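Colleagues,

For the teaching module next term, I've prepared a clean inverse folding example: a structure given as tokens, and then the sequence designed for it. I'd like students to try predicting residues themselves before seeing the answer, so please don't circulate the second half yet.
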């Protein structure tokens, strides 16, 4: 099934791209959710008229992603957690904790952009990937230290 994407989808392509998908995916997800339209002659003509606008928007998104990437490059955030003698945390550090710390540093991004496969459960330094844009990512260092608070 040939469709024109109305928004950027990380697994398929950028807005304005013509893609081939399985019919079920197109009929049951992309079309009903307004993420794509059929790639017929009428919609292709509309796409041709709007192509300059779409390219300008994609360029602006790319510039914003590059700016965010430069801002995040080399950042180390420190999170203080209670831990036992064996360096294991009482609890864990999740993407929510990382998002909260980045927000405190005036870095605005969505929590879903933080790629943390498993919660962090030990003390130490861990690289964490941040998706800043379409197929663009940067790494930050998350340093987990022992909290000085006594329970």
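(Answer key — instructors only)
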């Amino acid at each position: 099934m040939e469709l024109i994407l109305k928004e950027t989808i990380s697994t398929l392509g950028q807005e304005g791209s013509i893609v081939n998908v399985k019919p079920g995916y197109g009929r049951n997800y992309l079309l009903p959710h307004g993420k794509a339209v059929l790639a017929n002659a009428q919609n292709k003509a509309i796409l041709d008229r709007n192509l300059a606008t779409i390219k300008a928007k994609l360029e602006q998104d790319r510039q914003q992603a590059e700016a965010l990437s430069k801002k995040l490059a080399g950042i180390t955030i420190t999170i203080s957690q209670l831990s036992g003698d064996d360096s294991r945390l009482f609890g864990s550090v999740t993407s929510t904790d990382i998002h909260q710390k980045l927000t405190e540093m005036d870095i605005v991004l969505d929590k879903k952009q933080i790629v943390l496969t498993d919660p962090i459960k030990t003390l130490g330094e861990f690289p964490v990937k941040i998706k800043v844009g379409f197929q663009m990512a940067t790494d930050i260092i998350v340093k987990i230290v022992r909290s000085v608070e006594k329970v």
